[in-house]
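Comment on the following before class.
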Amino acid sequence: MIEKLRSNVASVRDRIATAAERSGRSVDDVTLVAVTKYVDSAATEQLFRAGCHDLGEGRPQVLWGKADAIYRPDLRWHLIGHLQRNKVARTAPITTLIHSVDSNRLLNAINSVGSDLNRQINLLLEVNISGEQAKHGYDEAGLADALEYAGLLKFVQVSGLMGMAGLDAGELETRRQFAHLRDLQQRYSDPQASNIRLTELSMGMSNDFEWAIEEGATIVRVGSLLFDGV
């Protein structure tokens, strides 16, 4: 299993490097977050051993269990799925980055936990770039309000934006949605508050991460490709 995982990881990293080169960027500009939400703790640990130290989970409860089961000092957990306010207290202390902040009430809950921990919690604001009702995330007006609100919160660090392309979108529409998120990042790239620093763009998954990189992604979330044939 470990050798196949290493091969898959190398293949994905090669594709990331090629996409970055096509867009005039360095491979070092793009972080691979390996999505482990469909596998158990044993397979997750094997993926870490195969070289993926940034791991992404979709459900907070699963993240808690895996964080308890797998301890490595250089393992960085990412929460990429929806986060409810009543799960912030257990999630925030063990995550390097929360990708999916989608409401001001959630921002406030995270700030409260950060106050308890006496440190800033690193997060991204999720934007609904596809416009699909089933997806979470701010719309454009809500994003502007969220950035203003977050700037008042001492214990949050907004490091960028996250978005997902539409489920049935083809290449042109997917690229358009990714480019729109990049444009929003650039629009708000010079905020007044010191805790707003929109340097990260988390967009792109197994089926579209190369397009995302070419449109400016700094973080891609890849899962199924890494476990192909395992």
User: Anything to note?
Assistant: The two ends are 6 Å apart (CA to CA). The CA atoms of residues 115 and 155 lie 6 Å apart.
